[in-house]
Amino acid sequence: MTTGRDAAAWHLVGLVAPVVILSGNLAGGAWTLSGVVLILLVYPVLDVVSGTGRPALVTHTSRSLLAGLPYIHVILQGCVFATLIWRVHLDGYAWTTWIAAVSSGLNTGISAIVVAHEMGHSRPLTFRWWLARLNLLTAMYLHFTLEHNRQHHPAVATPGDPASAPRGRALWYQLVCSVPAQFIDAWQLSVRSGRTGLRNTVLRGLALQCLVILILWTALSGWVALVVIFHAGVAVFLLEYVNYIQHYGLSRDITERIAPRHAWESQTRWSRWTLLELPLHPAHHLSPSLPFWQLDPIEGAPTLPTGYYGLFWPCLFPPLWKRWIDPRIPTTP
Questions:
Q1: What is the pTM of this model?
Q2: How far is CA 317 from CA 63, 199, 244, in A?
Q3: Which of 49, 109, 125, 189 could be joined to 235 by an S-S link, Cβ 3.0–4.6 Å?
C-alpha cells in the first residue's frame, strides 16, 4: 500500500551506483565486481524492501537539487567511461576487464541512457540536449533521441512502435525485433525530415561512433575498442529490457488517444529514486516534456508487481515472466 510522499533528497541514492562502479574501475581486481553485485543482486532486494511511495512535493530548494542531479550523473558517467578505458588498457585480457565492462555497461544503461532520456526531451540544440547526445555517444546509441521522441511516443502500444512488445513475446525475441527496427525507424525519420545522404542525422551519428572506436583502436588497441563496444552492448540490453517491461502486452489502436493504460507504472521507491522517476511511465507518456520531479502516479494505470530491478531476473525467463505479468494486463475497453 502506498504511503505518504518521499523526501526529494532520496534521489541522491541514485549516485551510489556510479560512484561504486567508478571506484571499482579505479581499484581493479575483485573490486570491479562491485557494480555487478550492487545492481544485479543488491538493488533487486532493495526494490522489494523499500516499498512504494509518492514523489516529494517539490519546494524551491528541492527543485534546485533535483534539477542539478542529471548534470552530476553526466559527470560521473564520463568518469566511469574514462576509467573503464584506463582499466582495460591496464589489465589487458584479464577477467577484470570483462567484469569492469559489464559494471560500466550497467552504469551506462542508467547514468547515461536514463539521463539522456530525461535531457533528450529538452528543446533541440540546447545545452541539456547536447549533454544527452554526449551521454548517448558513450553508449554508442546516438539515434535513440530521434527514434524515442518522434516514433516511440506517438506510436506507443501500437504495431508501429518497435519498443512496445506484444503480449506473449519473450524479451529475447523482442531484442532481435526491436533494436534493428528502431535504428531503421530513426534513419527513415531523418530522411522524411529532408536530411538525406551525408546530411542524414543517423548516418552522422553512426560515423561519429565509428570515429570514437577508430581513435581508441589506433591510440590504444583493438582490444580496448572491442571492450568499449561490448560495454555499450550491455547498456543497450538494459535499455531494451526497460522498454520491454514498460509496455509489454499493452495495446491501442493508432487512432486511439494515448491513455494511462498504455504504459506500466511502478511506485516502487528504489527504482523511482535511482531512475529519475522513470517507473512513473504513464505520466511521462501523457506529458513527455515534464521534468522527472513533476511526474506523479496515475490512478488506474496498470501496475507492475515491483520495480525495474526486481523484475530483471524474472524477465530473463519467459515462462516465469508471462505467468507473473499476463494476468495483470488490462483488458481492452
A1: 0.94
A2: 40, 42, 13
A3: 109
